[in-house]
Amino acid sequence: MSVLDWSEALAIGDAVIDDTHREFVELLNALDATTPERALAHLDAFLAHTEAHFGQESRWMEDLAYAAAQCHRDEHATVLEIAHEVRRRVAAGEGGVDLVQFLAAAVAQWFTNHAASMDAVLSLYMKEHGYQPSRGG
Fold it and tell me: What's this model's pTM, rounded to 2 decimal places?
């Protein structure tokens, strides 16, 4: 069983965003299914993807002078802060697979709402302004 299954309910309707979100969901599921030996590697992969993913969205919002950018970035910053803290604790031996799985479940719940609201509105705004998002920026 996965912590979050990709479905059309998560799709935004933009290929770049949806591909990035599919990867995000795959990495959440890898966190949820991790072993003690792989926990740090899975956390590192999740963090690398998530920093790039959120950075990409920030660049789009900057390009558009998007009015709700700070609120959107604040949510991203909170997720990254928590994920980095979990990584620090696991590396220090203060948490194990249970802590990683708790992170995966919490982020999955957050992501479902975030994608359906903030990311969907950002995508609509980009479409209305003829902005074509790309992986690079």
Answer: 0.94
